[in-house]
């Protein structure tokens, strides 16, 4: 469904992606792991068109993302941002229903609000939260609202950017379970980037490790622990010694 | 350091200035296109009208009343040197509506609004809210820039009109209470000599200055650097650029309207 073929991206003189090739089949949950600054977020942003690759092709359902009608193309996507990226000036329900209040998916305000409250319930938040502003919520609640916004329009593809960063272990577990449930329930294709190994094991069908601008290893999550790949072994066990330099 | 270093530095600065001018020109053209083409975000437009127009009234009003009052004192003191004290109402009115009302009012709005727009959009950029807009099929310039620029272009003339009235009233209060002018004669002289274009030119200036203020706030916000320092720098740059452009545009417009 999502195919990246030899994607390169350089910022200034710093090459971030040096030929990323990756396939994400429909309905699968792919988790990309890798150290900080290895280009995980850039990879996601390239698929979404937020960053334009220097070379290589990215296709979704066979369609080149750079040539697709942007509105139509993005209407299939939902994304949970690392910091939530909730709009401060809008109430929680307006954040969740953002896509339903304007554009091609526009619905009457009351209907959009009802859908938003339903999605908030789906991520374990009470309807009383709907009329609060994002600044009035805790980090975990903001993450859940971001998740509710990502699934509000029932997208076919959902991206999760560091979904558990900054959360305590219990809240991380809650978010991981929610993501897994939602992906299975909706039958959506998911791409998650994280360096939290508990997230990887909870969310992934397949795992790809990005290092030095290329996919170093990829395979089913069940093979992660058994693979002899030294990069994967160093990463998943959090060792300072190994082929991945600690000082980058 | 070589002998050519200063020349190279000057060249780099010149190229950077030209590049910046080009980027601002492209941003302006895109803004105008987004203002003119649907979809239109009316809710965001009305929120911007309130934030830019209504909430700027106190600062514009206070600026105008003190300016009008000081202007009356200055003109009285100056005109007394050649026994022309009677011109105080006319000069206060013309000075306020042609120059001080639009320029000082807009500079105060620039300080208040360009900074807040740049800080808000800059913060949205560094917290990925702009990226989130894109993923939600919403063009950031159409959603953030177009409503603010249109709102400022329409509301700053209204603020100028209010400021003009309050400024003239400030002059009236000082002239009648401190300088011994007759109330009825002051009002009569104020309006008898004021022409439509005196007021109209000030309102046109207000529209241009409003456009500049919101455009600079949006431009520097959209191009903000990372972190608190980046947002701070964008905010400062927005206010400085808006203020300088207002003063430059004021000269150009005055030349166009009144130089004959």
Descriptive overview:
Chain A has 248 residues and is an alpha/beta fold. In chain A, 32% of the residues lie in helices and 25% in strands. The longest helix of chain A has 18 residues, at 169-186. The mean pLDDT of chain A is 91. Chain B has one domain. Chain B has helices at 5-36, 42-53, 57-79, 88-126, 129-135, 140-177, 183-193, 196-222, 227-258. In chain B, helix 4 runs antiparallel to helix 9 and helix 6 packs across helix 7 (183-193). Chain B is globular and about 65 Å long. Chain B starts with a helix and ends with a helix. The A-B interface holds A 45, 48-50, 70-71, 74-75, 77-79, 81-83, 85-89, 98-99, 102-105, 149 and B 39, 41, 47, 123-124, 127-129, 131-132, 134-138.
Helix content of chain A: 25-40%
**Percent of residues in β-strands of chain A:** 15-25%
CATH-assigned homologous superfamily of the largest domain in chain A: P-loop containing nucleotide triphosphate hydrolases
Q: Structural class of the secondary elements of chain B? A: mainly alpha
Number of domains of chain B: 1
Ordered list of secondary-structure elements with their pairings:
The complex is a heterodimer of chains A (248) and B (260).
Chain A: E1 2-11, E2 14-24, E3 29-33, H1 40-48, E4 55-60, E5 63-64, H2 70-74, E6 77-80, H3 92-96, H4 109-122, H5 139-151, E7 157-161, H6 169-186, E8 189-193, H7 197-203, E9 206-211, E10 214-220, H8 230-237
Parallel strand pairs in A: 3-8, 3-9, 6-7, 7-8
Antiparallel strand pairs in A: 1-2, 1-4, 4-5, 9-10
Chain B: H1 5-36, H2 42-53, H3 57-79, H4 88-126, H5 129-135, H6 140-177, H7 183-193, H8 196-222, H9 227-258
Helix pairs in contact in B: 1-6, 2-6, 3-4, 3-6, 4-6, 4-7, 4-8, 4-9, 6-7, 6-8, 8-9
């Amino acid at each position: 469904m999502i195919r990246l073929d030899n994607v390169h991206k350089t910022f200034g003189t710093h090459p971030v992606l040096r030929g990323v090739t990756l396939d994400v089949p429909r309905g699968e949950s792919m988790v990309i792991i890798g150290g900080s600054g290895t280009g995980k977020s850039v990879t996601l942003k390239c698929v979404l068109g937020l960053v334009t690759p220097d070379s290589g092709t990215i296709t979704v359902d066979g369609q080149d993302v750079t040539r697709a009608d942007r509105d139509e193309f993005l209407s299939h996507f939902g994304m949970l941002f690392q910091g939530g990226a909730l709009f401060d000036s809008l109430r929680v329900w307006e954040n969740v229903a953002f896509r339903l209040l304007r554009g091609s998916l526009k619905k009457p305000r009351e209907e959009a609000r009802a859908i938003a409250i339903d999605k908030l319930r789906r991520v374990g938040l009470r309807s009383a939260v709907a009329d609060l502003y994002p600044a009035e919520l805790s980090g975990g609640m903001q993450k859940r609202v971001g998740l509710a916004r990502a699934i509000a329009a029932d997208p076919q593809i959902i991206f999760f950017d560091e979904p558990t960063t900054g959360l305590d272990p219990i809240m991380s577990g809650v978010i991981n379970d929610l993501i897994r449930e939602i992906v299975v329930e909706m039958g959506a294709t998911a791409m998650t980037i994280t360096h939290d190994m508990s997230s990887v094991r909870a969310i992934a069908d397949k795992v790809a490790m990005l290092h030095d601008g290329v996919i170093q290893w990829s395979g089913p999550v069940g093979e992660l622990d058994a693979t002899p790949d030294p990069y994967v072994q160093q990463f998943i066990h959090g060792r300072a010694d190994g082929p991945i330099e600690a000082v980058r | 350091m070589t002998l050519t270093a200063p020349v190279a530095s000057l060249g780099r600065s010149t190229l950077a200035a030209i590049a910046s001018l080009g980027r601002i020109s492209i941003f302006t053209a895109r803004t105008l296109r987004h203002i003119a083409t649907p979809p239109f975000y009316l809710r965001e437009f009305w929120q911007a009208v309130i934030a830019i127009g209504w909430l700027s009234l106190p600062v514009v009003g206070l600026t105008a009343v003190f300016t009008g009052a000081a202007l009356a004192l200055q003109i009285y003191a100056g005109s007394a040197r050649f026994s022309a004290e009677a011109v105080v109402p006319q000069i206060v009115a013309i000075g306020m509506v042609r120059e001080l009302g639009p320029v000082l009012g807009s500079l105060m709005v620039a300080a208040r609004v360009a900074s807040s727009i740049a800080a808000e959009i800059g913060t949205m950029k560094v917290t990925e809210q702009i990226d989130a807009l894109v993923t939600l099929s919403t063009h950031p310039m159409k959603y953030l820039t177009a409503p603010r620029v249109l709102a400022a272009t329409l509301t700053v003339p209204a603020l100028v009109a209010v400021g003009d009235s309050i400024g003239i009233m400030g002059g009236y209060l000082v002239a009648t209470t401190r300088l011994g002018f007759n109330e009825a004669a002051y009002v009569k002289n104020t309006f008898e000599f004021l022409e439509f274009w005196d007021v109209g030119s000030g309102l046109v200036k207000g529209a241009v200055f409003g456009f500049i203020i919101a455009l600079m706030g949006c431009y520097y916000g959209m191009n903000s650097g990372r972190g608190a320092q980046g947002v701070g720098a964008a905010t400062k740059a927005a206010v400085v650029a808006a203020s300088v452009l207002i003063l430059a545009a004021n000269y150009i417009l005055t030349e166009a309207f009144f130089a004959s």
